[in-house]
Amino acid sequence: MADNRRWWALVVIALAQLMVVLDMTIVNIALPSAQADLNMSDANRQWVITAYTLAFGGLLLLGGRISDLAGRKTTFMIGLVGFAAASALGGAATGQGMLFGARALQGVFAALLAPAALSLLATTFTEPKERAKAFGVFGAIVGAGAAIGLLAGGLLTEYLDWRWCLYVNVPVALVAFAGAWAILAPGGRHPDAHLDVPGALLGSGGMLALVYGFSEAASRGWDDGLVVTLLVAGVVLLAAFAVWQTRARVPLLPMSVIKDRQRVGAFLTVLFVTVGMFGVFLFLTYYLQGVLGWSPLKTGLAYLPMTAAMIIGSTQIAARLLSRVPPRTLIVPGLLVAAGGLAIIAQVGVEPAYASHVLPGMLMLGLGMSTAMMTSISLATGSVAPRDSGAASATFNTAQQVGGSIGTALLNTIAASVTATYLTAHAGPGVDKRLLQAEATVHGFNVATWWAFGALLLAALIAGVVVNAERAPTPQGAGERTPEPVDTLG
């Protein structure tokens, strides 16, 4: 019975994680419709995505500590209810400010939900074979959730309205809440946990300054005083955060979490992978809808092959090989394959190129990225002390969300700047303005995608140099009867 309850717990955890990951991209396909409906500018549209990922990433470490202090089940359930309420608010948005605020609020509750979910997973499945299966499912969700979001966004936008891309979270969250109430039991509390508020303010403030600086560079230029001030302030605040973490009584980011070489390699790898990936999903959506004129549904369906490739990479490649080969022999080739997919996508033009460029690029991207991500998840959460499982889970998610926030803002800025330069350089009498706009837009997307390609190569280099374990680590106490796994289930 206990085994069955563990697997039912995985269903509940996976459902909640799917909702969190899905919401990073479900609004991508709806974004053109929402932009027109709420009169957003091209420079401001990225905040629909960035407001979510920034609040999410900025508060994840604090969310991990709250999970340790209040208990994983309690934190998990509060996160579900809050996420549902924020989603309903966003769906009812009457202006872009209200939508941005609701998306940020979603990120706040996701910051409670995600580390509790990953911590529950890591402490529930400690036997190596079961752990590999569980993390294979979880890795598939992390990898494929983004693509599933794009498909769901297409269906909802096409047949209902872009607002349903937010409303849909309400029933999903309620189902997950009911499952958590019935299956999970209170446990995993650590009374010595402490909420490091100064650390949260320094870390969140630094990331907000960086992302805002990158986004403002699109309209102001990189040498603008405000942009420079924001970027410098972001670096200073993050440096202050790092110093504070060495002195805080109970830091948000314990040194024991980041002293492990394998975890550091996993965190840095995921950071640079998501720097490259989030912007590419946005560009592909605007390419298929804005340049090729595809409907939201057709655009969503276009991502299905990538979703299938992600599931195969996680469950049939990484999960089967993780306990047999060194982790970097999965991560590095996976990222190189994904980078090759971006190199193909970066060569599209204004003519339809789905079969020749986008489809093969998506397949390579999905297969390679999911293999690397699932392996990185296992590295990030393996062999961590139970008292720090929330912080380790939160750090992994923070790397993912911070990378996504910075990547979306940075790549959107690069694309917008290159597009504007191209328009200026090629404008003139007798030029077809509509065709020129399409060519400039695609050129901007291509240049930004090459930058994303570079980010994935850097991630592969980091993994190849830093990650040197012979096998993926297993949690402390794996194979033994410890209080931690028992605490998570009724």
Structure, explained:
With 490 residues, the chain is mainly alpha-helical. 79% of the residues lie in helices and 0% in strands. It has 18 helices and no strands. The protein has helices at residues 2-38, 47-70, 72-91, 96-124, 128-159, 164-167, 169-183, 197-220, 225-245, 255-258, 261-291, 296-302, 304-321, 328-345, 354-381, 389-426, 433-466, 483-487. Helix 3 packs antiparallel against helix 7 and helix 11 (261-291) packs antiparallel against helix 17. The longest helix is centred in the C-terminal third of the chain and has 38 residues, at 389-426. The protein starts with a helix and ends with a helix. The model is unreliable at 475-490 (pLDDT under 50).
Assembly annotation: single chain
H/E topology pattern = HHHHHHHHHHHHHHHHHH
Q: How does the helix and strand content classify structurally?
A: mainly alpha
Number of strands: 0
**Global shape:** globular
| Major sheet description | none
Helix content: over 70%
For the CA atoms, what is the radius of gyration?
21 Å
Q: What portion of residues belong to β-strands?
A: under 5%
Euclidean distance between termini CA atoms: 10 Å
Q: Mean pLDDT, as a whole number?
A: 79
| Poorly predicted residue ranges | 475-490
DSSP summary: helix tally: 18
